[in-house]
Amino acid sequence: MYSVFDCKILDLSKVHTDAGNITVLENSKNIPFDIKRIYYLYDVPMGADRGGHGHYELQQYIVAASGSFTFVLDDGLSKKEFFLNDPSKALHIQPGIWREIKGFSSGSICLVLASNSYSESDYIRDYEEFKNFKL
Ligand code: TYD
């Protein structure tokens, strides 16, 4: 079982040019799982909270592609907050971690790289069920 202390913000490589930056994530190179799905959260209304679930198996890399927001991670024992505001960094969320997302800045884009395709059966949406799973 993973704890919130196994979830870290990682520096991604950045190619800097006079015309701006490029950051690349490439399977088998700088991400510890094969990317099976990419999705992004955007047009999140000010003050809205998202998340409120865990995953049994899924691993994710979270990137603030634009703007900023905060992930609150919870392993059933400890909670840890991660503020993301830099597209050259990624938060690695391990399996079995509850997350809430809050404080989206206007126009922010939360890019998610995921280790599996969408499966509702991989979600734990009830916090008591999550706590029991973590026991
Ligand atoms: P959910 O993951 O619960 O949102 P968040 O954690 O950002 O608050 O997903 C919201 C809805 O979108 C839910 O009904 C399922 C749907 N969804 C898909 O159909 N495919 C996907 O890949 C994702 C991430 C969500």
UniProtKB/TrEMBL annotation:
Q: Where is the Sugar 3,4-ketoisomerase QdtA cupin domain?
A: 6-133
Organism's domain of life?
A: Bacteria
Which InterPro entries did the record assign? QdtA_cupin_dom, RmlC-like_jellyroll, RmlC_Cupin_sf
Which named protein is this?
A: WxcM-like, C-terminal
Q: Which organism is it from?
A: Flavobacterium frigoris
